[in-house]
Design brief:
The complex is a heterodimer of chains A (112) and B (115).
Chain A: E1 4-5, E2 10-14, E3 19-25, E4 32-38, E5 45-51, E6 56-59, E7 62-67, E8 72-77, E9 86-93, E10 101-102, E11 106-111
Parallel strand pairs in A: 2-11
Antiparallel strand pairs in A: 1-3, 3-8, 4-5, 4-9, 6-7, 7-8, 9-10, 9-11
Chain B: E1 5-7, E2 10-13, E3 19-24, E4 31-37, E5 44-50, E6 53-56, E7 65-68, E8 75-79, E9 88-95, E10 105-106, E11 110-114
Parallel strand pairs in B: 2-11
Antiparallel strand pairs in B: 1-3, 3-8, 4-5, 4-9, 5-6, 7-8, 9-10, 9-11
Classes of the chains: A mainly beta (112), B mainly beta (115).
């Protein structure tokens, strides 16, 4: 069962504009959320995370927003750069459980 | 420092054969994870090791899949009687202690193709 869903398989934005990647989850036990970035032929690399006690976490150009009531989170990248072009995975876990559930990913293309 | 490494990078086998996939975690990391990523999907959790022991193997799809980590470092994922549906990228990750909210560092994966 898909407990973490990324409904947009792809997104294309212009360099300098904002990229918004969305993620929905169904398991109300999830209390920690992460975004991973993946380039071709490489493993996913950790980008940013957020605990359910927060609704926003910011790190440079990357901000993650969490809406617990809607079971929705989003990753904002601003300004977007061509090097941000990659597949972005949303992941979630519950308690101290190391079993992360991943979404199917969104392929972001940033055009120069 | 060296990251997580996985060998082989690609493996082609025939249906019914046995395969072993190897993972070398980051030195000093006690926690090790295996994931499977099928085409068009995100990584799917298979098993988690804390030291030498499998702390959680709830993600293994059936008894054809087995993993070991005898000395608490290198891990081998073993698949018996491979089926075409086993074709996927098998990812390994490690983290420092496996406690709470730790970042998992992923290797590049082994791409398995079962003909």
């Amino acid at each position: 069962d898909q407990q973490v869903k990324q409904n947009s398989p792809s997104l294309s934005v212009q360099e300098g504009r904002i990229s918004i990647l969305n993620c929905d989850y169904t398991n109300s036990m999830f209390d920690y959320f992460l975004w991973y970035k993946k380039y071709p032929a490489e493993g996913p690399t950790f980008l940013i995370s957020i605990s359910s006690i927060k609704d926003k976490n910011e790190d440079g150009r990357f901000t993650v927003f969490l809406n617990k009531s809607a079971k929705h989170l989003s990753l904002h990248i601003v300004p977007s750069q061509p090097g941000d072009s990659a597949v972005y995975f949303c992941a979630a876990s519950a308690g101290n459980n190391n079993d992360m559930r991943f979404g199917a990913g969104t392929r972001l293309t940033v055009k120069p | 420092g060296a990251g997580v490494s996985q060998t082989p990078s690609n493996k082609v086998t025939e249906k019914g054969k046995y395969v072993e996939l190897r993972c070398d975690p980051i030195s000093g990391h006690t926690a090790l994870y295996w994931y499977r990523q099928s085409l068009g999907q995100g990584p799917e959790f298979l098993i988690y090791f804390q030291g030498t022991g499998a702390a959680d193997d709830s993600g293994l799809p059936n008894d054809r899949f087995f993993a070991v980590r005898p000395e608490g470092s290198v891990s081998t994922l073993k698949i018996q009687r491979t089926e075409r549906g086993d074709s996927a990228v098998y990812l390994c990750a490690s983290s420092l202690e496996g406690q709470g909210r730790e970042t998992q560092y992923f290797g590049p994966g082994t791409r398995l193709l079962v003909l």
